[in-house]
Design a protein that fits this description.
heterodimer, A: 90 residues, alpha+beta, Alpha-Beta Plaits, 4-stranded antiparallel sheet, B: 454 residues, alpha/beta, Anaerobic Ribonucleotide-triphosphate Reductase Large Chain, 2 domains, 9-stranded mixed sheet, 3-stranded antiparallel sheet, 15 helices, 14 strands, globular
Amino acid sequence: MQKVVITVLGKDKVGIMAKVCTYLADNGINILDISQTIVSGFFNMMMIADMGEKQKDFEKVRTELDDLGQSIGVQVRIQREDIFDMMHRL
Amino acid sequence: MINISEVTETNEMIQHENLDVRTITMGISLFDCIGDSVDVTKKKIYDKICRKAGRLVETGEHISKSYGIPVVNKRISVTPIATIGSSSCRSEEDYVELAKTLDSAAENVGVNLIGGYSANLAKGNTDKELIFLNSIPEALKVTGRVCSSVNVGSSRTGINMDAVRRMGDIVIETARASYGTESLGAAKLVVFCNAPDDNPFMAGAFHGITEGESVINVGVSGPGVVKKALEAARGANFEVLCETIKKTAFKITRVGQLVAREAAQMLGVPFGIVDLSLAPTPAVGDSVADILKEIGLEHPGAPGTTAALALLNDQVKKGGVMASSYVGGLSGAFIPVSEDQGMIDAVEAGALTLEKLEAMTCVCSVGLDMIAIPGDTPSESVAGIIADEMAIGMINNKTTAVRLIPAIGKKVGETLNFGGLFGYAPVMPVNTFACDRFVNRSGRIPAPIHSFKN
């Protein structure tokens, strides 16, 4: 199990979640938790997902998610979860 | 499970408050590179650095992408070269050859700085170490990546005043040798008291003789994060102020611990220490001076500065110590002038003087750092400034350092512009009264009374 945090930031529009989730499903990345808020028209979403034993390279997923974000006009980031755990949990 | 506000907080720190891993520094022992000829020593040094650090840069970049945090510098420190070359080097030129080897090995593995062109003369010096000292100006002139440091005293041994006096000359000669590049050579030369063996930050990094075969040390930094956190504590009492700094330092240091562990594992090298330092850069919002202003000073240098800095330094340590299993290096707030826009502003406003900076070094890491002084400052005065700073370190059982840059051909009011991470430095006035009869005495200042702890 390799837990990652995916964040999506940008102007709200139809289909952002659909596109991101479709990509994750197509690549066998399992979503464990989702939170989402919209503040003054800006879409702010975070999901915790499991990349599992997937062979697909983290770097490749990172680049593809970045490209996907650009194509729909939002910023999509993927980071390993450890950095948040280390910083916010004892 | 992690929640959205925690994720947002971390990413805000990285994207808007300049939180970064300042350096992953690999320490490499060169003891097994000692040869009986310069050529053999050079070949062994080059091969070993390339072998050990070949994947350092790639590893740093991989970590940066995995966690979404910048790893700004990947660097190397080696065993002090004065020792490694003592068997084979017979002249200054021989030592300069070793500096060139370090430079080309650093270039080969893609690191921007390599530290360890160093010597430890805390109590005395060997004949070869004197030759080594004389080689420093030329070595820093002909190389681009090599950093040099010389330890001239400690709380256990006292201060080697012969070495202090000589370093007064060497600092000026180094600045003269690099006259064409804004005296940049002197920005890569540090004089220490109580130099730590495991410091990851340049220019004073070296792989001390107490260290093992190789090690990963990490320096993490985020003055901007502390400043931002303190904005929410404006007008609050000291308890709230200190608590805020501690919590923030804890969070920053945890990132360092994570990165250090990951880098060590990926490279198959033991994890050494995390250095807790708040290290500024010339970038806006990455300033220790701005933290002091947020605490309540109009400019660093105003009355109260030493107290504010003491408080900051102590809270950073208290917060950071719990975040990492091994803390070391310099660990505290850095107060370089040229590398911190807020410090530069304070000097230009007339708020901050060399004497006030010296007082500030009593309560923080490390010392008089990146300070441009008039090019015609006598070497005796430079030695006197070094002696003062070494005495602060010796008496207070702390590391102190001096990195002065004599601005050759320039006077107070002019500036040295190094560019990049080194920033720019306004030339600051030096007290013009003489100290030559003091610094020209030979021998050592004895170890302080509190060194006798047995």
